[in-house]
Fold this protein.
Amino acid sequence: MRSRPAARVTLEQPTRKREAEFLERVQASQRLHHPWLKAPSTREQFRDLVVRARGERHATFFVCTVAASELVGVINVNEIVRGLFQSAYLGYYAFEPFSRSGYMSEGLALVLDQAFGSLGLHRLEANVQPGNLPSIRLVSGLGFRREGHSPRYLKIAGRWRDHERWAILADHWPKKRRGR
Ligand SMILES: CC(C)(COP(=O)(O)OP(=O)(O)OC[C@H]1O[C@@H](n2cnc3c(N)ncnc32)[C@H](O)[C@@H]1OP(=O)(O)O)[C@@H](O)C(=O)NCCC(=O)NCCS
């Protein structure tokens, strides 16, 4: 069984200690995020994120480098529904100057380990606008499958936008990764 190369990133629970760094990175990443999302950009919004991350229905992970402990991106597991569903919705964004470094692919793999391990989920869904190639490549590269097209699915920047529905099931996430 082949093991993963040494981890370059680790996951961290959001806390106030990253506030200044987070807000700086959001400012530096506006061109990367536009027009796909608007990350929290005020102290109040950041503090809301920290509080929300402690709730039962959400899990937020800061993706940080192992070498220098720099914040390179954020991954949200949103709206966790238990019972017969055991499913949740993914949201994520990278920060400059770290985009296209492979860190988000590594970070998302670690989140999938947790989602299908300790969080006990059965399914994760990511809804992506058809033109968002980096996002589509991120999820498809990790084994998400395109399940369909949802017209006028989410209101982003004031307009209802079509999205592609990508999802991955626990059964399709390699056991060798979950068992690490
Ligand atoms: C989507 C996003 C998180 C990807 O972050 P990243 O740092 O580029 O991630 P990685 O370096 O791990 O790369 C993931 C894949 O995207 C590809 N990619 C990244 N940027 C790309 C670009 N501009 N054009 C084409 N492919 C790109 C990478 O090559 C890689 O694919 P590969 O493994 O097949 O080579 C980042 O682009 C981002 O923050 N976008 C804005 C926010 C957003 O769209 N969030 C998702 C909403 S659904």
Notes: The pocket of coenzyme A is lined by residues 32-33, 36-37, 92-94, 99-105, 128, 132-135, 137-138, 141 (CB under 6 Å).
